[in-house]
Write a structure and sequence with these properties.
CATH superfamily of the largest domain: Isopropylmalate Dehydrogenase
Shape: globular
Structural class: alpha/beta
Distance between the termini: 40 Å
Bound molecules: 3-isopropylmalic acid, magnesium ion
Helix content: 25-40%
Largest sheet: 10 strands, mixed
Number of helices: 12
Order of helices and strands: EHEHHEHEHEEEHEHEHEHEEHHEEH
Length: 368
Amino acid sequence: MKIAILPGDGIGTEIVEQAVRVLNVLDLRFESETALVGGAAYEAHGHPLPESTLNLAKAADAVLFGAVGDWKYDKLERALRPEQAILGLRKHLGLFANFRPALCYEQLTHASSLKPELVAGLDILIIRELTGDIYFGQPRGRRTAVDGHFPGAEEAFDTMRYSRPEIERIAHVAFQAARKRHKKVTSVDKANVLETFQFWKDVVTEVHAQYPDVELEHMYVDNAAMQLVRAPKKFDVVVTGNMFGDILSDEAAMLTGSIGMLPSASLDKNGKGLYEPSHGSAPDIAGKGVANPLATILSAAMMLRFSLNQGAAADRIESAVQAVLAAGLRTADIWSEGTQRVGTREMGDAVVASLAGKAIGKTITTKS
Ligand code: IPM
Ligand code: MG
């Protein structure tokens, strides 16, 4: 088994370092190789996704990814910006199925911006289609308008499109995931306005015929955004397109009060995947040693379970994370009165200690 490790930019390097320490303490047999990606790769090689990094990711059984991006690259032409690295990896590796769990940890219920009773026990799985939609649809570009409200004016355009097989395969992923959970799928669309999403709704409904044991509901995206803050616990699996999924998954993550805790997986048709925290590169706190490494550590657990067939090791990591939370350790993003504030490395130390069967508090030196 080979893991490609792509830490990226900002806090990416700090959090991935802790996840790698956790993997190493498990005594699993795997090879790993690290490469630059995003802004870091642009600085070194002039491109955010160099050929060598892409080839490493292609050859590996799984990719552990940190985060990319920094405001200082905002003025670069689009093709050279750090975000192109993650978009390129998704496209070239065929990572069409993005799993974004939004889980509210019992100890963090009060960190949510919603009332505790609305989020206590929250457990939603957002399944976002990741290689189609307006993100990748051609044609796109700038031109002179020949019609519309201002013929002759400069305009920009993107193309929203989905083919039947693209919708079918993500629908199957969603129904199969729901079977292992509470057997309910909410398909989010904008069928009242968009042709693409009327087709989405039709095809999801057809695929549903093969899953009579799973309940299917359809919901417009604006209503879904509202229901997520009104009664989030009504959702089980949410399946949607690339753009709506981008927006709703951020909303759902924030509901849990713990975006620093949420892992994600992006899988291809054979179960090979890229694993990354749901949060970004947070350049404002990069290098300060305060970022929460748990989302990345939990992403490593997802990687073991989904791509490397090491479910037991994944369970151990997840239990260790529960244990450090139960012991009261918190990074700044999830800290509250009465808990112990720790940095990135101390949090990694604590997870490693728990996995090694040692007392968690003993390794902690920082005080809140
Ligand atoms: C995400 C991010 C990316 C996306 C950006 C960085 C291109 O927001 O993974 O949700 O829009 O997909
Ligand atoms: Mg996003």
